[in-house]
Amino acid sequence: MKISFAWLRELVALPASCTVEEVAGALTLAGLEIEGLHRRGAGLAGVRIVEVVSMRPHPGADKLRLVTVDAGGTREEIVCGAPNVPAAGGKVVWAPPGATLPGGLTLARRDVRGVSSPGMLCSEVELGLAAQADGLLLLAGDAPTGGDFLAYAGLPDTVLEVNVTANRPDALSHVGVAREVSALFGVPWQRPAVATREVKRVAGTAGQGSVNVSIADGRLCPRYQATVLEGLSVAASPLALRLRLEACGVRAISNLVDVTNFVMLEAGHPLHAFDADKVEGGIEVRLARAGETLVTLDGVERKLEPTDLVIADAHKPLALAGVMGGASSEVTPATKRVLLEAATFHPATIRKTAKRLGLSSEASYRFERGVDPNGLDFATARAVDALLASGGGRVVGATLDVYVTPPAAKRVQLSLASLDRLAGSSVCTAEEAAARLGAIGVATVVERTSTGPQLVAEIPSFRPDLGIEQDLAEEVLRLVGYQAIPVRLPAGGKAPAASPEALADAARDALAAAGLHEVALWAFVPAAWQRALSPEPRDVGLRLRNPISADYEIMRTTLLPGLVDSARRNVARGLTDVAIFEVGPVVLAEAGAEADAKTGETLQPTVAGGLLTGHTAGWLKPGAPLDYFDVKGVVESLCAALGVEARYEPWGAEVPPFLHPGLSARVRLSDGRSLGWLGELDPRYRKRMDLDVAALAFELDLSALGSTRPALRSVSPPRFPSVSRDISFWIDVDVTSDRQRAAFRAAEQPLLRELAVCEDFRDPKYAPAGKKGMLWSLTYRADDRTLTDAEVDAAHAKVLEALKKQFAVAVR
Amino acid sequence: MPSEVVSTTLGELERLVAAFSEEIGPLVTEQDIRAAQARYLGKKGRVSDLMKVLGKLPPEERPLLGEAVNKARAHIEDAVAARLDALAERALAGELARSVDVTLPGRGRALGTLHPLTHVRREVEEIFHGLGFEVKTGPWIETEWHNFDALNTPADHPARDMQDTFFLQEGPQDGPPRPGNGRVLRSHTSPVQIRTMLAGPPPVKMIAPGNVFRRDDDATHTPMFPQVEGLYVDENVSMAELKGTLLHFVRTFFGAAVDIRLRASFFPFTEPSAEVDAGCYLCGGTGKLPATQARCSLCKGGGWIEIGGCGMVHPNVFRAVGYDPTKVTGFAFGMGLSRMAMLKYGVDDLRAFYENDLRFLRQFR
């Protein structure tokens, strides 16, 4: 919301020495955050109002003219290129030599195509009042010829950009801000005086007057005031008023409409002016009926819903209550009679309509937050005064005031002890607190009770947000200033338990130590990425009902697509070696189903995923392309860091479609539970994801692990030497090293302590068809003696026998 | 006078010693030198051969020749030792002459990095852990009750708009959202407060870091962003402890000279409420850069940087979780971690955290 500082000064008696920065600083600390200050008319000096006397063509330029003006006794001839120079008697703005314009330009007498021009005639752009203009700024006939333009236009001014929080509808006006400033600076404020006129008050839901009003539901429209004026003439508003509206972000239209906006900006009450001649019969405030439509002021035909509150006449909707007027009853230059509406509406109903239609107006903004029903008398009186002053005419009969449901009186108590307890110490006396509340219009008395002083506050209707003692405490504290609250560290408590993120953080450290870089992937992914996981596209994952765009449609069920996307972007940036990971939640539930049986909550396990492309590290000579064993090394490091014993199994027929069938594995915990997968990505999956380099990836479900790693028990180093024996043989390629290892172990030789694979040799030049050459190094050791060769030979023979018993093995 | 035999033998010995020296001169391995030594001094060596003469000599001539043989033996042994020493020295010199360009890069995969948002989260956790705050986490997908109702944000509150919050599709033919029973992506970390208080009685002293989601996507907003929530509930917790906690945090995180200020504000789940500003560390809170006196680009000349919101827990929040608001009070605060990371690391584009450009991420060692 925008507040004009000049306007504010008219309402509150700030000392002249008080700067706008001081006011902005105080308001910001007290809860009305000033997000910006915009100067209007700054740098503008010496600019004067002049009257056009005559005009003749420029002898040297078709588009320029020489305009003779009366500058209050003296005559000047000025070169002007504007298309809208008024006829003799018109008033315009002249920047004479010596005048300065915003931006620092000082005018001088200057030769324009052979004619000497003393300064220039100005548009709003040159005066720094608008971003664009069609021509000269034309002033009303009553502008004083020769007078100072700044004084006439109410300049200079500073506009305060105020961020008003949702709980403070009272502050959505100059009056509301004046009340705050008054309280913060200890100076008086007052509303402008208004004339007293006859008002016909009706307590029910319908009333008769110059126009009849009936309200269908007093909850949706607690109060409606209608005033009819006639004999009005439509004209432009005075410049100072127009500039003020524009300073506050409201476009000036005509005197009748501008008055309603002016009163809204001043007092916070949105008003509406209907062309009374377009209203057939009385006013009905009701919900829209099925099938009704309304062309709003912006020219758009709106289909109305039965949840929309409308202002209607006997035949049709005239306006969307509190949101926007209708074109059919709009005030036009021909309007003579006006029906002035001042009302209050149900905030949530207004909000629903405004949101549904995407129509947010200055009016709906205020009605959504709550307009003070007891402020309507002032708003109507102020608007009628202004309409009569600028439009002529007269009021027809009395204002009809249908007040269905006045707000109940509300009283809130706050004990000084509670205030001190919230603040952490005494920040003021009860009397001072009461005075602070009184200054913002919350009449408060101090009662002495057995438990100490008690503040009893009558809550005014413009502060619907004040309902409990904490609300009052906040008012007192913010007016005293939060800086009065002392600074104290909390008392010690019990030592905090370990973080639930500890395991995930250990995984992050391990993966970074393994050379991978942590990325931040979105929690939601495009549906296409989810579908690409499988060659037969199917939707997997929870879908958002209202995604911002197709990029954020479905909750990720795996980190893989995001990792692939990040890798692709980095490859596109020219990086060849990409090693990235993330540790974070995935969302496993299918839409609505598969929720956690116990809690009814969606399963959101934390997983660790990574992706590698490129070559092994090296310089001077290129490294080898990364392969399965590189990614397995990363996964092994991760498992070691987490204290996990993992098993790696070929997939067989169950291989997920995004993994290469022969170059990937399922990872299991030693107890057989699934932990995840690793391996090379299937080239067809890469193609679907547009990644044109080979990539290795993994994903482990950390939720499958305990939150703490198993306790570590140590064993002393061996005291007696060990003996190694190598064994080399041909074996079927599909016998995995794990199965060979198990076969060796099956010999149950207690002396066999270590088994290490040294070679998996598959060169078809040497290897028999379907065979691979294996080289193992077996280590034998006893704990109580040095082994003899004979003992080792005997044990080794048994181990070899065990292998041969299970597999067709040809020793090399 | 020695006999002729002796004279001949003595001459022979001298020649042998000289020949030996000549022989080992070009030899460069210990093995070859030892072999040469054996050819002269071994049992069947050339020196030993000469010794055979000894037995045939009259006793009075033996000592003379014996001494000469021993001398020759010693000469040869010395020559061997000297030659070996020289070789060892040459080898050492050769070894020591090796050198590399020490400025070339090392071998092996370089260390990876943690994401800047992880660095900041951990630093924040560590600071609050030191004050006794426990880290708690909660799910991304929340019920509307946890995300809104329990936090004193009733069904018609603007914050519950479809505009701001992501709702999950519950079925293929979803109608308009029914307030209260739908599932949402949590729009703040505050539901973790609710879950923690529901899980046990006061006192509660926790922080909850994590990603939250709002329907914003522009230069200064991402639809997902990390927050950290703090909550301290006990008997007699006041705004003084809130200020103390935040001041300690800001000074540990940004620097010992940095101040804070609280500005009155509004959140449905706290009363009183405040925005938290930290003194701008770039300009020292003056609004002007010390070097140039130009307007500070970080705080835009205001001297303060908004880092989060805070307040005293609203009694309705306590009621929602079954705490008695007449017995306990509490404070809560929330801060955006990406903003803190931007301030801490001088990152001027929020999107950089989510572009996953390794050229950016690799810096955060």
Question: Please, could you describe this protein's structure?
Answer:
The complex is a heterodimer of chains A (812) and B (365). Chain A has 812 residues and is an alpha+beta fold. In chain A, 25% of the residues lie in helices and 28% in strands. Chain A contains 19 helices and 42 strands. In chain A, strands 30-33-34-38-37-36-35 form a seven-stranded mixed sheet, sandwiched between helices. The relative contact order of chain A is 0.06. About 1% of the residues of chain A have low confidence. With 365 residues, chain B is α+β, with helices and mostly antiparallel strands. Chain B is rod-shaped. Chain B has twelve helices and nine strands. Chain B has a seven-stranded mixed sheet, sandwiched between helices. In chain B, helix 3 packs antiparallel against helix 4, helix 5 crosses helix 8 and helix 5 crosses helix 10. In chain B, 40% of the residues lie in helices and 18% in strands. The chains are: A alpha+beta (812), B alpha+beta (365).
Assembly context of the chains: heterodimer
The unreliable regions of chain A are 591-598
Biggest sheet of chain A, strands in spatial order? 30-33-34-38-37-36-35
Beta content of chain A comes to 25-35%
Number of helices of chain B: 12
Overall shape of chain A: it is: elongated
- Beta-strand content bin of chain B: 15-25%
Q: What's the number of extended β-strand segments of chain B?
A: 9
Task: List segments of chain B where confidence is low: pLDDT < 50 over at least 5 consecutive residues.
Answer: 172-179
Please state the average pLDDT score of chain A. 92
Q: Largest sheet of chain A, if any?
A: 7 strands, mixed
For the secondary structure, the number of strands of chain A is 42
Q: Tell me the span between the first and last alpha carbons of chain B.
A: 90 Å
Summarize the helix and strand pattern of chain B as letters.
HHHHHEEHEHEEHEEEHEHHH
